[in-house]
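Re: the 110-residue chain
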Amino acid sequence: KKAAPSAAAAASNNVKRSGSNTNSNAEVKRLQAELHEMTLTVEGVEKERDFYFGKLRNIEELCQDKEGDETHADFVALVLEILYQTEDGFGGPGDEVEGEEYEEDEQEEY
């Protein structure tokens, strides 16, 4: 038969648990602050991405409007070639990237 823990042993266990909770709470607060910082960073990067995407989209539309104009045909062709260049893992207009389908209407606005 085991003896019941003494009052001193019970108090010692409570202190250990309390210290552990303090460490856990501090870790949770640190992780929450880190998450908040990362969220702000992501929001900033998304806003910047959308800003530059809008600029590139405007350039694309201007080039498409001038595509039939023989005066600027070479320049327009070069600009469109640059706009439509792709890298591994990225696609051009209408292309799908493995399992992803880009739809302009679904893009978030800021």
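The longest helix spans residues 7-66.
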